[in-house]
Amino acid sequence: MSLPQTVTSGPELHSPKEPAKKLQTPPVRGPWRASGEGAPGTRCEDTWSGLGTFRRAFSRSSQRASGQAPKEDLGLFQRSSRFLSRSLRRAREDGSKADQSQATAVPGVTHNPQVPSRVMDGGGRRSSAGVGREELEPEAGKSVADLITERQLLAAFEQLRQLEGRLVAEKASHSFQEDPTGFARRAMDVCLHYDGLAAEIGAIVRETLGPGGVDAAALGELARTVRAEEEAHPASPADGDFLLTPRRWRQHWEDAVNTQGPSTQKGEPPQAPPHVRSVSYTHLDVYKRQDLQKVWREVLPAYSAAGFPAGEAYLRAFHGAVAQRLQELAQDARGCEQLYVLLDWAVNVYGSPDFLGVPDLTLSTEPLPPLLAPALWARLESDYTSFLETKVTSCFDSILQLEQSRWADTEAPDMLQGLYHTPLSIDVHMLVAEHVKVAGAISAELEATTLSICARALGLFLPRFAKAFLESKAVSEPHLGASINACEELRTSLLARFPGTFEELEKPLVAATCTFQKRLLQGLQGDVQPLFRNLCTKAWLTQDVLQPLMDKVVAFARHLEHMAPLPAQETLQELHRYVVREYLAQVLRPRERFRGEERVRSAQKMGVDAQAIGDTFQGLGSEATWLDQAIPCVADILGETYKDDILRHLETLIGSYPDIRRDHVLAILALRRLGRRRNQRLLQHAQGLMRAAAKAGGSGAAGGHVLFEEIEVPASMDLLIACI
């Protein structure tokens, strides 16, 4: 890269062979120039007057540069002036205390005030330091500025270092006091050329990731120059002298790398899915991975060949630039999708093995700070969960609308593996699994939070779904069976897949299932309830009025074959209990009373019906065998001819069904017509058995079985017994 030439050239660093060769002022960022206008042409009478002249010249140069030079290079220029002035002041004070003869007696130094000195403005006198014929000869006849322009940085630095050494020796001998202005200008010229070298280092770094190729030779020259400067200036002088002060070019190089960062993406960004396009591709991919690939493949080998480690600096620069841009995007991220893309990009995309697109190039983030500050990360997660709650609720609303559209079609539900099927469970599973999976990819904490959000939303959705379904026109055995199956699938699979999280859903799922089962049975109960009225009549004694009722039961049970096993068994047992309960209710509240032979025949008929009911439900697969003894026990009491054995039958009945009450015993005894004294004796004994059963079981039902408790009997039965 060619450097812009300044209007005036700097002091001439020449050899005896080329006395007229000028040392041009290096191109230090902008058109400002160091000028020596108004400098005295003769030897100064006083050191302070020379310093004052230098300050005025430097001030004018600074004013011309203030509006045009970049801040970085202008700062270098101003620091050079400040430290140089301080250094000269210190040297003058030290020199005033030293012997003047020692200050001028420097071996090998000639003093020729008539030899002109090439300073910034091309005028002025030659310093008494005696640089003259001992001046450094430029390599191949080139000035330092030309070497910098041609990026022969190491050769330029070697010339400046030797001239710097001569200036240090001149200062140590205090001979600079003979012409302090000329000395100051030559020292400033060295400083400016040092700054020019630093500026060229920054320019090389900035061009590295440009559209052109990587200049490996320039990078190697840069690396060797930085190392040479560090060896030449290992530490700051003890006296704080500006000359020989470390230039810290390695830090300057790192600053240039950091300010460079990844280049912005050119042209149109690649297309992305619509819901993530606004963030993932058009913003985050501004930082091209190709830049870092280029660094890894072309830039670092050039530095490594010169023994200059550069990988960590480029990695930190890339990381810092991406982190800054990501934090800027985080301030404007809105919506669940955008927030998730940011979190996912920071956790999973950045630093992944395939991030750079080449297997052998891995971006390790272990020694680097997090892309997002902990407080910002926490805020993003909080915002994401807030948006997620709204989104999940909206998704459940959409699921309900889909179900309602299916109900409106009034078509039978689909069959899946022989069971009534509705997409409800699949939709819920996909909704929960999708959000939990993507949250788990971010962090375990976010996954747990997402599970809780989904569980709460599902718990609120189930009652709404049940209410909307029961109010629709699609209520039928197949649709009810499909809804029951969906609830059972959710209960078993969600609890198994996410143990400890969806346990709170056990209640709402069971409640919804029970609601559907109850509604399913209500349809059958409405059909068979009139048939129970034919029982315990005189026609019943001679006709098989139970068979039509059982036929409807069997037809209903066919729907249970298309339901999940557990809820189907629960429904079948509930149906079994309903049939036995309603049968006993007709027996205890007979529309016609039997005496003598008819009572015995009714007891026998009850035994036959009990067997038919038991066989039918056993054939259907009912496991409620505890119901089998209820009707036969009552039949034995009514048909027992040996009255003393009635007590034994009562004991069996109360022991098998502890939920039986006193009113039920009175109703049974009233049907038997034993007489007041015997009835009272049997009732007292039965009450003792019921109290003992209540103490043993803690409740009126054994094992949760309820039968007699739901059978209502006339409240006037006590009066009837008293009148017998």
Question: Brief overview, please?
Answer:
Helices cover 62% and strands 1% of the residues. It has 724 residues and is mainly α. Helix 1 runs parallel beside helix 6 (180-208), helix 19 (546-560) runs parallel beside helix 21 (597-620) and helix 22 packs antiparallel against helix 23.
What is the strand tally? 2
Low-confidence stretches: 1-78, 96-137, 263-283
Distance between the termini: 127 Å
Biggest pleated sheet: 2 strands, antiparallel
Broad shape: rod-shaped
| Protein structure class | mainly alpha
Could you state the order of secondary-structure elements as H and E? HHHHHHHHHHHHHEEHHHHHHHHHHHHH
Quaternary status of these chains?
single chain
Q: In which order are the strands of the major sheet placed? A: 1-2
Q: For the residues shown, what is the average pLDDT? A: 76
Number of helices: 26
Q: What percentage of amino acids are in beta strands? A: under 5%
Describe what this molecule looks like in 3D:
There is one protein chain. This protein is mainly α. The protein is 62% helix and 1% strand. The protein is built from 26 helices and 2 strands. The protein has helices at 47-65, 71-97, 100-104, 144-149, 153-172, 180-208, 216-232, 249-260, 277-281, 289-305, 311-332, 335-349, 374-408, 424-440, 444-470, 477-497, 506-532, 538-542, 546-560, 565-588, 597-620, 630-639, 646-656, 662-672, 676-697, 717-723, and strands at 414-416, 419-421. It has a two-stranded antiparallel sheet with strand order 1-2. β1 and β2 (419-421) form a beta hairpin. α14 runs antiparallel to α15. The radius of gyration is 51 Å and the shape is rod-shaped. 39% of the residues are buried. The model is unreliable at 1-78, 96-137 and 263-283 (pLDDT under 50).
